[in-house]
Amino acid sequence: MDLAEKQAGVYQLFDRILANHALKHAYLFEGLSGVGKLEMSRYIAKRRFCPNQDQGQPCQVCPTCLRIDQGQHPDVIEIAPEGKGRSIRVDRVRQVKDALSKSGVESQKKMIILNQADKMTPSAANSLLKFLEDPAGDVTIFLLVASRQNLLPTIVSRCQVIQFAKQDLKTRIMDLVEAGLSQEEAHLASHLTQDLDLAKSLIEEDDLLSVSQKIWQWFSYLVNRNDLAFILVQRDLMVYIQDRDDCQMVCDLILYLFQDLIHLHYHLDSPACFVGHESDLRYFMDRLSIKQVSYAMQATLQAKREVDHNVASQAVLEGLTLDLQESIG
Fold first, then answer.
1. Which CATH number is 206-328's, of 1.20.272, 2.102.10, 1.10.10, 3.30.70?
2. What kind and span of H or E run contains 142?
3. Cα separation of 34 and 146, whole Å?
4. How far is CA 177 from the centre of its chain?
5. 82 pairs with which residues across the strands?
6. Most buried one in 19, 94, 124, 135, CB count within 10 A?
7. What does each C-alpha distance from 164 to 39, 50, 145 come to in angstroms?
């Protein structure tokens, strides 16, 4: 599915904006990973920089278009989280601001794309805010986020917010199966991302299937009041966790497991994340109350917040395990 189909509303909006030369200086693209935020930003860049346009559309094959697609055009600067903490630090934002104070390398126009802008450190966010308050020259900045809630309200207020539509879950699963994933892999990956390449990476590089099996075993221990749940965190789960993103993925899978229980209890027609475990889910739901499952989801959300605040992953998951052993075990 190409960009014009995947995000028809946003695509048509920017077609009109660009045709009328009405591009603003700052946009906030909000939507889940894989919905096309980065792709749309690069498309807009190609509309502005491609020298071989046909009826307003970039050629997609010239050196300019190819460099933009590869994130290597000198006047289209892309920033993403980096380093051990996977954050956008203030020195990186300052480097970009310094580059913006100089003339463009190939034209007078410049574009900045901040991917996962919600991963900016507080000092980086404040530095960016100063630029947004007083933009200079022909510069357009795109902030790409999953949710605006994780950005300073003062930054959001200085951007035009564009909401990207979420792709239907059943459609995502079918697309992943057609791309070669098994049903079990497709159900797991489709709950975590809308991006096909990232879904494949989760399966092939992050061993998503094995992680989900360990989480299922952990949950079974919890419900059956088996103390091995705590030991499993250190012995088995931590093997797959190298950084905060890995720990967030584990927490997300735990959340989706509890969500599967809720959907089963209320007979909701929504594809399960842990497909193939329906009979076991019914068994567990018979042993748990809705109140207990709701509490478990709130506790897992709190664990995700702790990960965001740099609490050690093992401490977060062990704390969550102890909490749930007491509340649902």
1. 1.20.272
2. strand 139-145
3. 10
4. 21
5. 87
6. 124
7. 12, 25, 10
| Cα–Cα dist 156/145, whole Å | 11
pLDDT per position as a tens digit, 126-158 = 999 988 888 777 899 999 998 899 899 999 999
In the predicted model, what is the mean pLDDT of residues 207-231? 96
Main-chain dihedrals φ then ψ at residue 76, nearest 5 degrees:
-120, 95
Which contiguous run of DSSP H or E holds residue 201? helix 196-204
Mean pLDDT of the 297-319 span? 96
The residues of the chain that CATH labels 3.40.50.300 are: 3-163
* CA nearest neighbour of 278 among 177, 181, 178, 184: 184
Multiple choice CATH, 3-163, 3.40.50.300, 3.40.50.2000, 1.25.40.10, 3.10.560.10: 3.40.50.300
| Tokens coding 278 | 């329906």
Structural contact between residues 110 and 100, judged by C-beta atoms closer than 8 angstroms:
yes
Residue among 202, 198, 283 nearest 250 (CA): 202
- CA distance readout (Å), 261 to 219, 229, 235, 276: 12, 19, 26, 13
Of 8, 4, 41, the residue nearest 23 (C-alpha): 41
User: pLDDT > 90: what percent of the chain?
Assistant: 72
Residue 300 has pLDDT above 80, yes or no: yes
Q: What is the pLDDT of residues 84-138, one digit of tens each?
A: 567 899 999 988 888 777 766 777 889 999 999 999 999 999 999 988 888 777 8
